[in-house]
From TrEMBL, chains A, B:
This is Monoamine oxidase. The keyword Cell inner membrane does not apply. SUPFAM superfamilies: FAD-linked reductases, C-terminal domain (SSF54373), FAD/NAD(P)-binding domain (SSF51905). It is an enzyme of class 1 (oxidoreductase). It comes from Nonomuraea angiospora.
Amino acid sequence: MEGAALTRRGLLVGIGAVGGAGAMYAAMGALGLAPSEQDKQFAAPRPGDFSLSGKGAAKVVILGAGVAGLTAAYELGKAGYDCTLLEAREKAGGRNLTLRGGDRLAELNGPAQDVRFGEGVYFNAGPGRIAPWMVTLDYCRELGIPIETFVNNNAAAYVNTNGRTVRARTARADMYGYIAELLAKATNVGALDRAISKADQETLLEFLRRFGDLGPKHRYEGSERRGFTKYPAIDTGTPLDAPGTLHQVLAAGTGRAITNDFGYEQATPMFQPVGGMDAIVTKLTEAVGRDRIRTGAKVTKITNLADGVEVAWEGGGLKADYCIAALPPHILAKIPHNLGAQVTTALGTPIPVAAGKIGLEYGRRWWELEDRIYGGVTETDLDITHIWYPSHGYHSERGVLVGYYNTERNAELYAALAPEDRRRRALTQGKKIHGDKYRQNLLSSVSIAWDRQPHIQGGWVRWPDFDSSFTFLQRPAGRVYFAGDWLTHLIAWQAGAMESARSVVTQLHQRVLQSA
Amino acid sequence: MEGAALTRRGLLVGIGAVGGAGAMYAAMGALGLAPSEQDKQFAAPRPGDFSLSGKGAAKVVILGAGVAGLTAAYELGKAGYDCTLLEAREKAGGRNLTLRGGDRLAELNGPAQDVRFGEGVYFNAGPGRIAPWMVTLDYCRELGIPIETFVNNNAAAYVNTNGRTVRARTARADMYGYIAELLAKATNVGALDRAISKADQETLLEFLRRFGDLGPKHRYEGSERRGFTKYPAIDTGTPLDAPGTLHQVLAAGTGRAITNDFGYEQATPMFQPVGGMDAIVTKLTEAVGRDRIRTGAKVTKITNLADGVEVAWEGGGLKADYCIAALPPHILAKIPHNLGAQVTTALGTPIPVAAGKIGLEYGRRWWELEDRIYGGVTETDLDITHIWYPSHGYHSERGVLVGYYNTERNAELYAALAPEDRRRRALTQGKKIHGDKYRQNLLSSVSIAWDRQPHIQGGWVRWPDFDSSFTFLQRPAGRVYFAGDWLTHLIAWQAGAMESARSVVTQLHQRVLQSA
């Protein structure tokens, strides 16, 4: 319960909801909020905002119809801004890309792939999950996009490290068991007497018994939490073999895998739109107006003027009052502009990160039928890094596994292969975890190497530091604003693109309202 | 990977699927499987089984159309057994009870409640979740019941203990942080030198840094895993206040809550049928045939005969070849029978356990809108014990919270209250966690005290020991078989009822096949 802060924010959001941005900014002043706190609030522009100021909505050209560009156009559109989106790719959405049967995926320096999935099956080639605190979920609600759970943590999934495969529940039970035993031992020999009181030691020991499922004398001797060969029913079931020694458990190297969901970005539960992540693109596009998006328009020049911005693309050009450049920085950096050397330097600072995924379509959901894995992720130190099991379509005929979701060097390794070799390698690796069935019942596959996607050329970017280049580009250069997940601390998340768009929309709208 | 065991079992299941139970039993003999291993397998009876033996399906009377009785009838029906189910209540399902607007819930020694929920809203008054390894999920698949995730663990839900409320993610981060710090400290002062090698200590310390998100010198100084007042976006966000001291964190008493999903029964993910748990009852009933279920039939006498079983109820009676008594033991114990003193004693051994739930219908899903809690459970040491947030209907208008789900003394406390007083008390308690909004926007409520449900009179039972009475009743008394979750190690789970039914069906079918 965050108490006072929540209440004040709640009040402001309420004022914003009822009275629009104008009323909210006024209220923020009345409450004595520092400007920096304004970032915490977002009130969408409304037509009514102009009635106070006597100003009118401006004309805005938006470069890139990814999630950032679409969100900016959507929010500005609420107040009647005249937005045009220029998208170099054949369709809107950017990295929010859901592939289905009949789609064709082009690749730089590689062959195009035809997606051969059957009816009702899809593959989120880009973002696949949403944390509940993220603004992405607000857009799902506002746009009427039904959501469902994305299983990000599954006790029945596997951990495959150092060549051994165990269920996640087993790996966790063993690590927790031994940790609890060791700490109980240290407590009982008096090693913590200077650190904590005897009474606290008793509380700690009680917790450790529970945490590690310790036996008599605080020993870890295995636990039913590890799972069973045959689960209890008529009888008490058949437990797994006894756990390895502490040395063996430590050597297994499962630590990274079993702490994977501890962070605020990956914690359980997570969510996904029903039917594919691109529902967000579809609904934003509908709300913005399909006719406002010009696809196949590769921008060639950005010119900031005293009274507007001129943007040229191959085969056209337009002038608008403002521009929002919602392209990846390394793509934007290649476009000639007159925004100054500091912009050029700043755009050149973030480093593209490779990321890749493969969708493996099976005609039989063996992971449910045989492994009892319903959604979730198997973690491995193999170069495939992860296997994702689908969190939807349970018990249906077909299903698409994500056979790898890797980054950096592993992604580059797969990117360098032809699509059929990526599949072959992914199957060889997955077989080490799942056995022969991993190569059986495979119907089709499609792989994406984000660093080879036209006009995107990277999974996301990494800032060496969140330095002055980062904050510099959070503000406009003349009449040109910059937007994208790469300008937030939510890089690689759609929420970052949306938050960045909101920040730019707020700045731009305030400027229009305050302009002479 | 369970290797050999899985393979042999897979083979048998395959034989069972293709050749039916008769072929499978033969194969088990050929493989030299001990009889005890037969419990691990289930092959449903088939009409073809009789063609080998020259026998025919028998007539079976089943007492109780709860999940055990329905499952037995369903499986026997596959081979053409002539089953009649006698159900004392007004409808089938037993404790698998989903309440919707228009339903009326009777109560022993208490007023009936009219359920006033709006359209599309429901309340699983009995079982609410299914673990993926449970046979319940197989029935969902076989019966074509769509399933969805039941969120059983939510980092954003609260832990309310000793009068304080924190997010589960915060409680967990603090406990893990301090545990890791303490164990690192013990390691670094050499307290574990005799227990583990120096090399293993290094591996352990690396894990502890990750596990506790420790800072320099292995100190826990808080972590972004605790959550934020404002999550990162344009800036790095506003973290929560610093964690309490180790003493404060231990004194907070969150240990039980944060280990709640460690066991194999409660581990993430769990599942529920789409639209309400009673989809299982509906589909089983359809498969069995509605006309085979006689409701309002309270059994008054069970007579085992040399050539069959006679069952009498208020207003009728019938004779069948076999009987399956699928009633709670304490209900069955009250019915006169000629099955002998050992049966009477055994039926009197398990002790009914009180359990209660309240469904609170709100006109606004404030837990999603304001608390960003999408499904999951808040754990508390208040007498309400749990608050469940719905794992479906996200972002819709209405929603039903489970305002308490408690057992034993807490359940008895609420059971003794009138329905409006249960609601009042539940709201008073929930307000301590959620504040005033917990009492606002409430549209209606309905509460169940399972110990006061006619013909059920308990949430489930507890065996003082799983002693000879337990195993005795797993075998027939004459021609009378006993079935129910109470005869398994999955008490209080539908899977227990189903596994028990399968065991009885297997025994009965083998007997019929082998009978002279």
